[in-house]
Amino acid sequence: MADRLPSDHPSIETHRVSIERRGRMDRPRLDCSGIDASLPIEEAVRLTLNGDTYHARIERTFEGDPEIRGAYDNPRLAREPAEGTDRLAEWQTRNDLEFGRSVLLDVVASEHAYGLRVPGERAVYEATAPLDDSLRSIARSLDDDR
Fold first, then answer.
1. What are the residue ranges spanned by the domains of the chain?
2. Which residues, at least 6 apart from 97, have a Cβ–Cβ distance to it below 8 Å?
3. CATH class as words, domain 3-145
4. Of 42, 85, 102, 112, whose CB has the highest number of CB atoms within 10 Å?
């Protein structure tokens, strides 16, 4: 069983990010421009929302800043978001968060697992180790076959 870490654990690094409107649509994106930590651009990562683990792809804005445009049920859907349900939008609605609002992005395992929570709330995350490159390649090819 994987270790469980609370959001106030000393190993968890927390960053304040904001929920912004994506273009002219009412779809959210997380503006991660203030984060100095290395974020795996163009890679699918784990993103925990209210205890449920989803997958998100960290992308760059036109200005070159990192952003997260959605959270999906598996890594393939994170890479091909048109096919899946955006769980980030559901999370925003469930928590009644308006665009421009700050939220907290917790780094659970750098370049692998993150958590999102409303300021003032505490979360508990499952600390999972990232796959090595060869296993990640196998997992990606299996996802692509679906």
1. 3-145
2. 19, 103, 118
3. mainly beta
4. 112
